[in-house]
Specification:
The chain has helices spanning 18-21, 168-172; strands spanning 12-14, 25-27, 63-68, 73-80, 87-88, 99-102, 112-117, 140-145, 149-162, 180-192, 197-213. The protein has 222 residues and is mainly β. It has one domain: Sortase, Chain: A (Beta Barrel). The strands form 2 sheets. The chain has an 8-stranded mixed barrel with strand order 3-4-6-7-10-11-9-8.
Amino acid sequence: MSEDRASSGGRLLTFAAWAVLVLGLWLWGRQLTVPPAPPAGPAGGTVGRGLPAAHAPLAGSLPQRVDVPSIGIQAPVISRDLDKDGAIDPPPYDQPGTVGWWGRGTQPGTAGAALMVGHVDTRSKPAVFYGLSSAQPGDKVRVVRADGSVAEFTVEDVRVYERAAFDAHKAYGQRVRGRAELRLVTCGGTYDKAAKEYTANVVVSAYLTGVGARPGEPGTAA
C-alpha cells in the first residue's frame, strides 16, 4: 500500500460484512519500495503435513499484540474499520510497525477466521509485514489479548493470490467449521513500477493450537 490511496485498486476492499455475509476482504496494495518477491503459489513446503491438532476456541477478547518469532514480527495491534468508500483503513503510515485488525470481524482465538493486515513498506523503509512471505508452515503466531491470555496459532500455509484468479472465500473464509483461525495479509505478487502497485496478496493462514498466559501473569493452559 502506498500513501496515495485514491485508487480503488490500492485498497483493502470489503464486498460485504466479514462475519455476516462471509464474502471476504480483498487487499490490493500500492507500494513505493519493493520487498522480496514471494512465490506465485503455495510457499513454505508441504501444506498441512505434521502439524499439531487444533485447540478449542477461546472466549472473546480484544487483540493487543501479535508476534511471529520466526520472522521477527512483534507488533502492537489496533482495530480498524471501513472508510466512507467501504474499504478497510490500514494502520496509519506514521505507524509502519503496527498491525491492523478488522475490528468488526472475528476476535483472534474465537471460532471463525480473524483478519489482520499490515503494510509491507512505506515511502522510505520496510514495514511490519515486509517479511511475511517468508513464513513457513509450522511457525508460531502469538496474539496477546486484553484478558491476559496469549492465543497461540500454528501456520498452516502461506499463499499468494493473484488478482486474475482471486477467490475471497478460498483466501479468507473459515476452512474448518468451528475452528479458531487467523489470516495475516499484506501485498505481494509482481510490483508494477509504472502503476506503483502490487498484483496480489500474501496470505498467511494459521489456526489455534494452544493458549498461554502473558509473561509475568500467573497460570497457563494447554
